[in-house]
């Protein structure tokens, strides 16, 4: 497959503010460019980051950065939860999947967009977000498309930075597309607390060039139509910041 699947709308599920831009940004921008409604569910505020701590309260900073980045990507709706950054893997996947179910119903999602299994970088939070999304999707019979990185890209990054990227061989990749990164790069700059001192990010983008690859984690279901009961239609860009009550 050399193009993104037809789907309306798309819900991206991620662990941290910046995941939607650093990882899923090219895909979200591509969906938006062809008129596909997109939404983002982010499970933590990313406040445990070691980057940007001199800028103030990361809890507030990263929420504001997410809102700005989502606007750059053409995302119509953002839900930001407040699960503990760095400890998402300790939260039951079933509990997290209920949040995904609620957001999917509000967005009328026909497709979930997530990080690849292995979390791309091996991050447990990334892996748990994908696990919860897939758990919900299997029940709801929704397809799940995972952003991945090619094996050679992962191997180069791991060799140069001693990172733990999980790459995929050509036989494991289901979709390879050419992308225009301009909107993604604009969104990345919105995450100033995380992007300015992040050589791994910029090296990965250099290695990827204008190419992104994806894997199907769940093919069962449909790529059109609502996930569950739809809420009343909404217009404009919205962002909610929720606690766990």
Task: Provide the spatial order of strands within the biggest beta sheet.
Answer: 6-7-5-4-1-2-3-8
Contiguous uncertain segments of 5+ residues: 222-238, 241-245
Structural class, from secondary structure content?
Answer: alpha/beta
Share in helix: 25-40%
Apparent shape:
globular
Question: SSE order, as H and E?
Answer: EHHEHEHEHEHEHHHEE
Number of strands: 8
Strand content: 15-25%
Q: Give the overall pLDDT as a whole number.
A: 88
Q: List the total number of helices.
A: 9
Overall radius of gyration: 16 Å
Q: Biggest sheet: strands, sense, closure?
A: 8 strands, mixed
- How far apart are the first and last residues' alpha carbons, in Å? 42 Å
Q: Could you walk me through the main structural features you see in this protein, from its secondary elements to its overall organization?
A:
By secondary structure, this protein is α/β, with parallel strands linked by helices. It is 39% helix and 18% strand. The chain has helices at 19-23, 25-33, 58-73, 93-107, 124-140, 151-161, 182-190, 192-195, 199-208; strands at 10-14, 38-44, 77-83, 111-115, 144-148, 175-178, 211-218, 238-241. It has an 8-stranded mixed beta sheet with strand order 6-7-5-4-1-2-3-8, sandwiched between helices. Strand 4, helix 5 (124-140) and strand 5 form a beta-alpha-beta unit. Helix 4 packs across helix 5. The protein is globular and about 40 Å long. Residues 222-238 and 241-245 have low confidence and may be disordered.
Which key features would you list for this structure?
single chain, 245 residues, 8-stranded mixed β-sheet, 39% helix, disordered C terminus
């Amino acid at each position: 497959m050399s193009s993104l699947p037809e789907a309306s709308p798309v819900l991206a599920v991620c662990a941290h503010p910046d995941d939607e831009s650093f990882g899923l940004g090219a895909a979200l921008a591509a969906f938006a460019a062809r008129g596909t409604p997109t939404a983002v569910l982010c499970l933590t505020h990313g406040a445990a980051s070691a980057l940007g701590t001199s800028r103030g309260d990361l809890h507030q900073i990263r929420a504001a950065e997410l809102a700005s980045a989502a606007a750059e990507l053409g995302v119509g709706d953002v839900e930001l939860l407040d699960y503990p950054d760095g400890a998402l893997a300790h939260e039951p996947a079933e509990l997290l999947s209920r949040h995904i179910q609620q957001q999917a119903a509000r967005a009328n999602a026909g497709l979930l967009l997530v990080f690849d299994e292995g979390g791309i970088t091996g991050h447990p939070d990334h892996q748990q977000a994908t696990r919860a999304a897939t758990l919900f999707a299997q029940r709801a019979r929704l397809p799940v498309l995972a952003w991945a990185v090619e094996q050679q890209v992962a191997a180069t990054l791991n060799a140069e930075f001693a990172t733990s990227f999980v790459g995929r061989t050509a036989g494991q990749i289901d979709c390879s597309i050419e992308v225009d990164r301009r909107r993604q790069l604009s969104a990345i700059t919105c995450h100033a607390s995380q992007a300015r001192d992040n050589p791994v990010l910029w090296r990965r983008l250099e290695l990827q060039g204008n190419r992104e690859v994806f894997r199907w984690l769940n093919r069962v279901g449909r790529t059109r139509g609502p996930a569950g009961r739809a809420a009343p239609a909404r217009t404009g860009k919205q962002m909610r910041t929720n606690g766990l009550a």
